[in-house]
Write a structure and sequence with these properties.
alpha/beta; binds adenosine-5'-triphosphate; Rossmann fold; kinase; 5-stranded parallel beta sheet; binds magnesium ion; binds ligand L45E5XJ5; 10 helices; 11% strand
Length: 240
């Protein structure tokens, strides 16, 4: 089990984030995190910390989920996969379930407000303040809606850059029963990725927030590029 602890140097970083995001905060989403809640025990998470948000981008099968699991283990992040949250809505027979299922089958993008509502709910009910938001934003529209609704920008953005043929191979071998893991839908998802997701990658590159990871090789080889990104942020490492 990892401990929810953070080194003193993170406080400096968190304050810097507050200053950077001051103009867009508007006390919406932040209110949940700025409420003073007494510590339950020494060294546990304090809810008054600024959330540290990492967007995790990359094409279908580029390895986002796989690498997120390792970051969670080593650095105590909470992993929120937009795709998983949407699949959970389908499984729970929610009113939007059929629409979400049809959208996923077509490799298209679910309306931003719906996906953001699911992400927001998870963040607000979490005791953690470090989040990996995987597979979001998938489009400029997703990105802008997130900023407007949540009143916050990501601190950093990871981009897993993987050749198409490798992504197709991985997805076809995934074997998790996903309705979109077939060659017809994968081709559609790759087109959507190029047309809608790459502009988001470009946006964050130009903002200086993007960490591009060469997503070829073994899982451990790729993680060797990911690890230093988080280690350099001075979060206390919770497990080697
Ligand atoms: N470096 C790797 N080499 C070979 N296979 C990998 C590698 N990384 C992940 N995989 C496998 O490829 C498949 C896709 O990985 P993963 O689910 O992490 O991708 P993803 O980016 O989250 O995809 P999606 O966007 O479709 O959810 C999984 O079966 C995973 O085990
Ligand atoms: N922001 C998002 C994220 C995902 N979707 C839909 O879910 C599908 C699967 O997503 P994965 O991240 O698990 O690959 C994706 O192809 C989209 O149909 C979405 O609409 N918006
Ligand atoms: Mg995934």
């Amino acid at each position: 089990m990892w401990r929810r602890v953070v080194s003193a140097s993170h406080f400096t970083f968190a304050h810097k984030s507050i200053a950077n995001n001051k103009d867009v905060c508007k006390l919406k989403f932040w209110e949940a995190f700025t409420t003073e809640i007494p510590l339950k025990e020494k060294g546990t998470f304090q809810r008054d910390k600024t959330p540290f948000i990492t967007f995790v981008l990359g094409g279908p099968g580029s390895g986002k989920g796989t690498q997120c699991m390792k970051i969670v283990e080593n650095f105590g992040f909470t992993h929120l996969s937009a795709g998983d949250l949407l699949r959970r809505e389908i499984a729970s027979n929610s009113a939007d379930g059929t629409m979400i299922l049809n959208t996923i089958k077509e490799g298209k993008i679910v309306p931003s407000e719906l996906t953001i509502r699911l992400i927001q709910k998870e963040m607000e009910s979490s005791d953690n303040y470090k989040f990996l938001i995987d597979g979001f934003p998938r489009s400029e529209e997703n990105r802008i809606a997130f900023e407007q609704i949540m009143g916050v920008e990501p601190d950093i953005v990871l981009f897993f850059d993987c050749p198409e043929d490798e992504m197709v191979k991985r997805v076809l071998n995934r074997n998790q029963g996903r309705v979109d893991d077939n060659i017809v839908t994968i081709k559609k998802r790759l087109k959507v990725f190029d047309a809608l997701n790459l502009p988001v990658v470009k946006y964050y590159m130009e903002k200086g927030k993007l960490y591009k990871i060469k997503a070829v090789g073994t899982v451990d080889e790729i993680y060797k590029q990911v690890y230093p990104v988080f280690a350099s942020l001075n979060f206390e490492q919770v497990r080697e």
